[in-house]
Here is the input.
Amino acid sequence: RFPDLEWGRGRLFDNNIADLIFKNVKSHKSVIVKSVTKREEKRPRPLGLKTTDLLKICSSSMGIGSHDAMHIAENLYTQGYISYPRTESTAYPEHFEIKETVNMFRQSNELGSLARDLIQQGVCRPRSGTDVGDHPPITPTKCASQSELGGGVEWRIYNYICQHFLASVSPDCVFEKTRVEFTAGQEEFSCTGKKMIEEGWLVCMPWLNNENINISEFKEGEHINIYSCSLYNGETSPPDYLTE
Here is the structure.
C-alpha cells in the first residue's frame, strides 16, 4: 500500500510560508523516489522479570490491581510454582539452571510446543540485567497446567511469568527496516516500513508483535503520482506532568 508521507521540514510556524510551499507541492503531479535504504534492526529479548514490571502487566493487561496481583504471586510462591516474587533484580544468577527450567515444560499442554522449539533451536544466554542484591528475577519453578491452577487469575499470572521466562532466553526478534525518501520540487518527504524477518522471542509473547508497517516496494528514480495533498493547522501541546 502507499503510505502517508512525512514532510522533511516537520512543521512551520509561519502560515504564509507554509501556504506557499503547500501550493508549490500541489503543482507537482508526482513525487520522485530519491533513495531507498534497508537495514536490519533487532528487538532484544526481555530482561528477567522484576516485581514492578509484573505488577504493571497485571494492572494494564489483566485488570488485576497491584495488591491482588502481589497476593496471588505470593500464593504461587508458597505453593512452589514460582520463585520469590518480591525482587527488583533483572539479572539471572550465574549458575541459574536455564536449560533445565525450559526442559521442565517439554510435556506441558499449554507451553510444551514453545519449550520444545526453543530447545531444538538452542536456548540463548539471557541479557545482562541488573542485580540489586535482593533476589533473582521471578521465574517458574514447577510446571503447572491451566486446570491445576483453576484457569482463573492465578493461571493468567503464572502463565505470563512462564512466557516471560521463555522469551528472556529466546533469540532476539529481527526486523527489516526500510526508509524511502521522496522529493517534490525542493521539498523532501519520507516514509518508513518495517517487516519481520525472524520472530524470535515474540513467539512466546505474540501480543507484543505490533511493529509491522507494510509499504509498497519502491525504486530510486521512480515517479509516484500524488493522489492527495493536505495542509494541517494545529497547536503545540504542553508537556506531561512530571513523574518519578
Summary: The chain is about 30% helix and 20% strand. The radius of gyration is 25 Å. The mean pLDDT is 92.
